[in-house]
Design goal:
Elements lengths: L1 E2 L2 E5 L3 H14 L11 H7 L11 E10 L2 E11 H7 L3 E9 L3 H17 L4 E4 L11 E4 L15 H8 L3 E12 L6 H12 L3 E5 L5 H15 L11 H11 L8 E6 L2 E10 L1 H4 L11 H10 L5 E9 L7 H20 L5 E8 L3 H9 L3 E12 L2
Parallel strand pairs: 5-6, 12-13
Antiparallel strand pairs: 1-2, 2-3, 3-4, 4-5, 6-14, 7-14, 8-13, 8-14, 9-10, 10-11, 11-12
Helix pairs in contact: 4-5, 6-11, 7-8
C-alpha cells in the first residue's frame, strides 16, 4: 500500500522482522529519556518459540518505509483469550511507533483497522504489545522521565495522531514514583502496626530453592487479585514458566515477600531492579562488553531505581483491615530491603488502573506520587 511517498507493507521475512524490532532504537536514539531494552529480549518477544503468549494470538505486523528506510511500525493482534472472556469481537493494535508525520501514523492505524475488520472484528483496542500482560498503554503524561524496565516509551505526538483517527479513551493506567527514604504516611504506619500486632498475619520470603512452585503460588494470587480489573486476562502456566526464566536473575528473596493470613499465602509483592537503568548506555547490545557492564552493575548494586511489576492480594481480602494491613506490611519490608540491601534510592509502582482505588491508596500510603499516565484507547470498526 502506497500513501504519498511512503509505503506500508506486511512483515513477512526475517530481515523485516528484525527491522520491526530495530526501529525504536533508531527512532529514539537521540531521546535523552529513552532507555533501550535489550535487543535479544525484544527479538525473543517476537518469537513464538520463545514467547508462549504468542501461541494464543493471531498477529500481522506492518512497516512503513520511505526509500528503503523504516519510518513506522504497528501490529494487528487478535487475542483469543480476550475474545473468549469478553465476547466483544475485539482486535488489538500494538507496537505503534512512527516518525513525527501525522499521515504516517494515520496510515499505520488505517492498515491495522482494515486487517482486523477483514477478520470480523467489531472494535479495536490498544496499544498492547501482544497482551495487556505485556507492555501496554500509550504514554500521554510524564514525558521527561526515563522508561523503567518493562514499561513503554513514546512521543507526545502519538496521542494527537491516535485521537485524530477517532480513538477514544478506554481507561488510564498510572505509574507512581517514590523515594525509598521518604516518609511513611500515618495511615500506612497504622496498617503496618496492625499487621505487626496481629498474630494471624505473618510473612515469608520467596524460597529460591522451590522457585517454580513458589512463583506459581504468587501468580495464582495475582490472577485472583486482578481478575475483575479492566481487560484482565490471566497468565497461563506456560506464561508463568516463561516469566520465571526471565526474572530469575534479578529476584531477591527479601524483595519478593508473601503475606500470610492464618498461615496461608494470600498476598505478595515483588521488587526488581530497573534493568533499563543498568543497560542505559549499551544501545540494547550485550556484545562485546555489555555483559560485563550489566553483571557489574547488578552485583555491585549500581542501580538507583527499582520497580514493583507484580503484587496482589486475594479478592476476599480486598476490603478487609487484615488484607490492607498485610499488603502494607510486606510492601514496607520489601521496600526497606531494596533500600538497605540493594541500595536503591527510588521505586516505581506500575501500572495501576485509575479505577483501582485500593492500590492507589497503598501507593499513596508509601508517599508515592503519580508521575506518568498510560492510556488505553478503543474504536468501533463497524
Amino acid at each position: 500500500m502506497y500513501i504519498g511517498d511512503f509505503r506500508i507493507h506486511r512483515v513477512i521475512n526475517a530481515a523485516q522482522r528484525r527491522a520491526f524490532v530495530e526501529f525504536p532504537y533508531e527512532l529514539y536514539k537521540n531521546d535523552p529519556d529513552w532507555r533501550p531494552p535489550l535487543r535479544i529480549e525484544r527479538l525473543e518477544h517476537q518469537n513464538p518459540d520463545k514467547n508462549p503468549a504468542l501461541k494464543h494470538v493471531e498477529k500481522c505486523r506492518f512497516l512503513a518505509t520511505r526509500n528503503g528506510k523504516t519510518i513506522g511500525r504497528i501490529a494487528a493482534i487478535i487475542n483469543h483469550p480476550h475474545r473468549r472472556k469478553y465476547e466483544d469481537d475485539a482486535g488489538h493494535f500494538g507496537f505503534f511507533d512512527c516518525v513525527g508525520e501525522a499521515e504516517v501514523g494515520a496510515g499505520l492505524l488505517e492498515v491495522v483497522e482494515k486487517r482486523l475488520r477483514d477478520k470480523g472484528c467489531l472494535k479495536i483496542i490498544g496499544p498492547t504489545d501482544w497482551t495487556v500482560n505485556d507492555q501496554c498503554g500509550l504514554l500521554v503524561d510524564g514525558f521527561g522521565a526515563p522508561n523503567v524496565v518493562m514499561m513503554n516509551h513514546g512521543r507526545p505526538y502519538y496521542q494527537a495522531i491516535i485521537e485524530a483517527a477517532g480513538y477514544k479513551k478506554a481507561v488510564d493506567m498510572y505509574a507512581y514514583y517514590a523515594s525509598l527514604a521518604g516518609p511513611y504516611l500515618s495511615v500506612g504506619k497504622k496498617m503496618k502496626t496492625w499487621a505487626e500486632n496481629d498474630p494471624s498475619i505473618n510473612y515469608r520470603p520467596l524460597d529460591m530453592r522451590r522457585l517454580h512452585p513458589e512463583f506459581h503460588i504468587a501468580m495464582d494470587i495475582f490472577n485472583d487479585a486482578w481478575s475483575e480489573n479492566w481487560g484482565f486476562i490471566p497468565f497461563s502456566p506456560e506464561e508463568v514458566d516463561h516469566m520465571i526464566k526471565e526474572m530469575r536473575p534479578v529476584l531477591k528473596p527479601d524483595q519478593f515477600l508473601f503475606g500470610l493470613i492464618d498461615s496461608v499465602p494470600v498476598a505478595f509483592v515483588c521488587v526488581i531492579p530497573d534493568i533499563n537503568e543498568a543497560v542505559r548506555d549499551l544501545d540494547g547490545k550485550l556484545f562485546p562488553t555489555g555483559w560485563a557492564k550489566l553483571l557489574y552493575r547488578l552485583k555491585a548494586n549500581k542501580i538507583n531505581q527499582c520497580r514493583v511489576p507484580l503484587m496482589g492480594i486475594r479478592k476476599r481480602y480486598h476490603n478487609s483491615r487484615r488484607g490492607v494491613a498485610t499488603v502494607a506490611h510486606i510492601s514496607h519490608l520489601a521496600f526497606e530491603a531494596a533500600r538497605t540491601g540493594s541500595r536503591h534510592t527510588h521505586i516505581e509502582l506500575s501500572w495501576i488502573l485509575e479505577t483501582n482505588k485500593g492500590m492507589i491508596g497503598i501507593a499513596e500510603q508509601m508517599s508515592a506520587k503519580r508521575y506518568k499516565t498510560y492510556r488505553m484507547y478503543e474504536k468501533g470498526l463497524t
